[in-house]
Amino acid sequence: MNNVVETASGKVRGTVVEDVLAFKTIPYAASTAGPSRFLPPQPPAPWIGVRDCTDFTGHAPQAGLRPATRPELEDFSGAPDPSPETEDCLTVNVWTPGPDAAAKRPVMVWFHGGAFAYGNANAPRLRGSRLAARNDVVVVTVNQRLNIFGHLDLSAFGGEAFRFSGNAGTLDMVAALEWVRDNIAAFGGDPGNVTIFGESGGGAKVSTLLAMPRAKGLFHRAIIQSGAAVRLRTRERALALTECVLRHLGSAAASVASLQAVPVAYLLAAVEPAQKALGPSPAPLFDRYPFGPVVDGDVLPAQPFDPVASEVCADIPLIIGDMKNETANFLAVIDQVWDRSLTEAEMRQRVAAIAGEYAGRVMEVYGRLYPDLNPAERLIAVTTDSNFRIRSLVLAQRRAALRRGPVWMYSFEWETPVLGGKLKAPHAMDVPFTFNPLDLTNATGGSPDAQTLADTMSSAWAAFARNGRPDHPSIPQWPIYDPDRRATLVLDKVCRIENDPRGEERRLWQEITGTK
Q: What is the pLDDT of residues 369-428, one digit of tens each?
């Protein structure tokens, strides 16, 4: 198999991984260090000869920003990417069954999770070889600028040149998709059939792209996994966060030029103090990314799905869904949740912080609907619905109301047996089911029905990428989502269709958030 492909910037050499060609850390834009920091992405400098792309060489700066977890969960998702942090991070990884330009395979472009703050596209669980080989698709995973490097809004501080600094990382996503448009045919892909997909923060990136005029025409289907972004930062809140950063940095922020020269570690160290000084959003269940895209009237003309769905890419077919127990791994850091010793009083206190005056209603509804669950398990159910599911439901409902591109809704409910089954179906466990390298994680305990579900989910996602419909023999006929029936595919040992699953909880959170 020919492992050298010519791109617009020069030739790249890949390597064979599980019978497909893998090209790692191909630059789609230039380094963002020094005078390029905070500015829109620029094309990479062309190179002479063949560039070696057989190994990962780096990912975006993020040290110290990943949330803490329990020691028991450190290796749950598999090994991390060992490559270094670098501002020369605008790269893509490509997996292809073959570089025949005539093949015109569907292209699946993955945006990684991490809430616009951390994460990268190089982790073993994102290995695209099996998804590509078993479904005859080309898989692309994207690295981009994150946190303060991708989203420090200097538009009121640095002049016209920094007009888009708050959306530098947002524009990186467009640059990556433009690279796919211009180069993917040489890797055997069809630039006219591109699916964008992502989980958690990656789902938020997909949500954002659906509202960006600059992205229109660069992709043709979309999948949002546990990451619906109904709202993003306002310009006012973005500028207020910038003021908090500048105060924290003091003399190091005397000018934009000095900010561009500040060591990476200094900027990363400013993130959490600035976010703390800014304080919570007025709409904390929907505004979730202090450093993230900015609704600036240009790159993002309006909120993606508030008060209605954006019309920008309204014709794009969309799959959206969540995990049944999203917050099980987030709340695991609380000892009383992990050992299931949380009391009713402690649960009520935590629910009150989320639901305010509705806390009593929430306690009554979840106590009545889940009498066999202990308070820790009911807290996981409450926070899953309040912090994740309500956003997916609102996004799906508002998108379906446009009556243009079809929407399909799913719920991932297969429960892992590892760690005594405490996690059930937690956040991000679906990622290796999407890419199918279950053996590269510790998430499933080698369960044979997990492998069957991974084959099903990855194949259905690939069928959607190929045809714009998630039709596949391994799942029942999956009806389009509408606000009346609310048909939902449940991904489990036996996949099934349910209409309006957990409907009473949905109605409660729509009332609490005013999103009826």
A: 999 999 999 999 999 999 999 999 999 999 999 999 999 999 999 999 999 999 999 999
Among candidate residues 154, 164, 149, 49, the one with its CA nearest the CA of residue 90: 149
pLDDT in tens, 228-281: 999 999 999 999 999 999 999 998 788 999 999 999 999 999 999 999 999 998
Residue for token digits 């940095």?
A: 249
Closest by CA position to 48, among listed 5, 10, 97, 87: 10
Q: What distances in angstroms separate CA 359 from CA 219, 256, 356, one per listed residue?
A: 42, 46, 6
Q: What is the C-alpha separation between 198 and 196, in angstroms, rounded?
A: 7
Q: Which two tokens stand for residue 410?
A: 């799913």
- Write out 320-373 in H/E/C secondary structure: EEEECCHHHCCHHHCHHHHCCCCCHHHHHHHHHHHHHHHHHHHHHHHHHHCCCC
Q: Which residues are designated catalytic?
A: 200, 326, 427
Q: Both tokens of residue 487?
A: 């048909």
For the whole prediction, is pTM greater than 0.85? yes
- Domains, the chain: 4-230+290-320 (3.40.50.1820), 236-278 (no CATH)
Query: What are the DSSP E strand ranges found in 456-505?
Result: 487-491, 496-499
